[in-house]
Amino acid sequence: MRAAYYEKNGAARDVLRVGDVETPHAGPGEVRVKIATSGVNPSDVKSRAGLTRKITWPKLIPQSDGAGIIDEVSDGVPKSRLGERVWLWNGQWKRAFGTAAEYIALPAEQAVKLPDTVSFEAGACLGIPAMTAYHAVVLANAGKDTTLLVSGGGGSVSQYVIQFAKRAGARVITTISSPEKAAVAQEAGADHCIDYKREDVGARVMEITGKRGVDAVVEMDLAGNAKLIPGVLRPKGSVVVYGTNGEAQLPAPFCLTNSIRVLFFLVYELDMAERIRTLDAINDALVQGALINRVSRPTYALADIAAAHENVERGSIGNVIVTI
Fold it and tell me: To 10 degrees, the CA torsion angle through 5, 7, 13, 17?
């Protein structure tokens, strides 16, 4: 089969190759999926660059998210799943073979039925962004009469956070850096957008909340934004952290004297109960046609995977998709 791979860490154009590799088959408890689309996430490009994880296999096929059709099942997996449209999660987590390939074999539970009304492009958006977003909203205790501050409202995860928080009945404030990002955040349902490059985020949050502060912050870059916490968060509020670009210096005295909860999580490591709850919520939203699954344009052919990775590194609006 054709696949993209790298054999050492480095810049996308220096290390990514496309060529023939051995076609996988479904092992015990697995399905094989003929990949239609593969999603490229910031964690994929950071891993390839060696910023978060160093390569530990001779050859690594990148990317954890994708969508396609089950074309092979092993013993113990119902044959009725053959031909099923699915979206995938954790395709490349702790494994050497991800979704940037014509086929992938993986545990059957990691191939989730995709409603017929949802495109393969949209399906490749869900694994990391939507699952991260829903779990963050749960940890933030979003609901009626709560207000969340979502950092980076133009980002792929943040757009899903906004949508799930609004479904829970919360009011959502988000930070953005351009009119284009404000537009997509508002389309996702954000009630207020604050341009952090031109406005005082703390002053605007206090104005919006009547000087109360938000109930929770959902944070994509703790290192960059920790300094904002005292100016935006109410006493006994929460900071839910799903990402950071480096070491963070927390405002510890404020957090201590105000009983602030700081909750970190990694979407790859959700436990079974968390995973089931998250998958059920995403499926429910998909069936209802209630999710905006924003795909960045253009999409990329497998041969152009280096350009896809570079688009993510530039900060694309929407999920970057490689079509297989």
Answer: -40
Average pLDDT over residues 100-115: 98
Distance between CA 250 and CA 33 in Å, rounded?
Answer: 43
Hey, is 266 helix, strand or coil?
Answer: coil
DSSP 294: P
Q: Which residue has the tokens 């490009």?
A: 45
Please state, in angstroms and rounded to a whole number, the distance separating the CA atoms of residues 305 and 99.
Answer: 12
CATH topology of domain 129-268: Quinone Oxidoreductase; Chain A, domain 1 (3.90.180)
What is the rounded CA–CA span in Å between residue 27 and residue 97? 14
Q: In this predicted model, what pLDDT tens digit does every residue of 113-160 receive, in sequence order? A: 999 999 999 999 999 999 999 999 999 999 999 999 999 999 999 999
Q: Which CATH fold topology does 2-125+293-323 show?
A: Quinone Oxidoreductase; Chain A, domain 1 (3.90.180)
pLDDT, tens digit, 9 for 90 and up, residues 10-20: 999 999 999 99
- Give dist(CA 29, CA 78) in Å, integer: 10
